[in-house]
């Protein structure tokens, strides 16, 4: 594959929601990356988060801030709080009790804005397990399950949002959410690590996205797939240098950011950023 000219890729202004890590800590372990014995430098986490926010703003995007709440150390991972498409918001219902209260904070944000908010019945963790590819097949929801979100939530999201949902089974606990194994790069294409998915789900992805950028295990372990893309600029963890090179060959512009402290909770760029789709 030859190098694609980045000028052929088009950036589109986005709106995002983020929550500062003012109370960030690893006080419990609900994914394989969390180590309660590893100290967290909250000051450094705040600096890294602020740099991520400034990077998104510099790229021309609007960033809204959800106030952090005491007692919710994982609230910095704002992507998990809901999933929005065309002004409709499908709320989150967290699997673990430690995070349940986060859903109410996100609900309040959307209810104070011009959104149609739908309370979920099924367990789901927002954009942690839902990705949206708006130009594919008239708008396609890719939906992960296996560790956090219940498969029944995929049908519920499809009904709420009026877009077909494709269920993808995650099989490696290191990639416990869809957003650490797959990401939308633009309106029509994705990047993903095949080894995170069942054989059947891999076949589905190959059929739907034959031109996808394929990541390897090292890319995924570096949290490279936990990224945010505007169609041209791809903001990703600075540790994922190999994936950055692959994206550059595919015509995207990698924008590395350092998020070493926030990685201690099992997340990186995308986990910290919920996309708002009015």
Structure described in brief:
This protein is α/β, with parallel strands linked by helices and 278 residues long.
List the SSEs and their pairings:
Layout: E1 15-18, H1 42-58, E2 62-65, E3 82-85, E4 88-91, H2 102-111, E5 116-118, E6 130-133, E7 140-145, H3 152-161, E8 165-169, E9 182-184, E10 190-192, H4 199-208, E11 213-214, H5 217-221, E12 228-229, E13 233-237, H6 241-249, E14 253-257, H7 260-263, E15 274-276
Parallel strand pairs: 1-2, 4-5, 7-8, 10-11, 13-14
Antiparallel strand pairs: 1-15, 3-4, 6-7, 9-10, 12-13
Give a description of the structure.
- The chain has 278 residues and is of the alpha/beta class.
- It has one domain: L-arginine/glycine Amidinotransferase, Chain A, CATH 3.75.10.10.
- The protein contains seven helices and 15 strands.
- A three-stranded mixed sheet has the order 2-1-15, covered by helices on one side.
- The longest helix is centred in the first third of the chain and has 17 residues.
- It is globular.
- 46% of the residues are buried.
């Amino acid at each position: 594959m030859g190098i694609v000219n980045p000028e052929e890729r088009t950036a589109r202004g986005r709106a995002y929601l983020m929550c500062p890590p003012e109370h960030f800590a690893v006080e419990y372990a609900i994914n394989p990356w969390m180590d309660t014995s590893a100290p967290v430098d909250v000051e450094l986490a705040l600096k890294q988060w602020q740099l991520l926010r400034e990077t998104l703003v510099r790229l021309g995007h609007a960033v809204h801030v959800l106030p952090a709440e005491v007692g919710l150390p994982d609230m910095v991972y704002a992507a998990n709080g809901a999933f929005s498409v065309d002004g409709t918001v499908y709320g989150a219902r967290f699997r673990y009790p430690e995070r349940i209260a986060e859903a109410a904070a996100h609900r309040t944000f959307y209810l104070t804005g011009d959104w149609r908010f739908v309370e979920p019945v099924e367990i789901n963790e927002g954009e942690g397990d839902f990705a949206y590819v708006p130009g594919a097949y008239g708008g396609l929801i890719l939906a992960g399950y296996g560790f956090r979100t219940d498969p029944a939530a995929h049908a519920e999201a499809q009904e709420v949002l009026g877009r077909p949902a494709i269920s993808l089974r995650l099989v490696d606990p290191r990639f416990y959410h869809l957003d650490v194994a797959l990401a939308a790069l633009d309106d029509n294409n994705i990047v993903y690590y095949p080894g995170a998915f069942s054989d059947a789900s891999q076949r589905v992805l190959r059929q739907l996205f034959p031109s996808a950028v394929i990541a390897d295990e090292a890319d995924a372990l570096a949290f490279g797939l936990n990224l945010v893309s505007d169609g041209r600029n791809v903001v990703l963890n600075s540790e994922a240098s190999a994936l950055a090179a692959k994206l550059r060959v595919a015509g995207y512009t990698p924008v590395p950011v350092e998020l070493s402290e926030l990685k201690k909770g099992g997340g990186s760029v995308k986990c910290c950023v919920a996309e708002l789709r009015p």
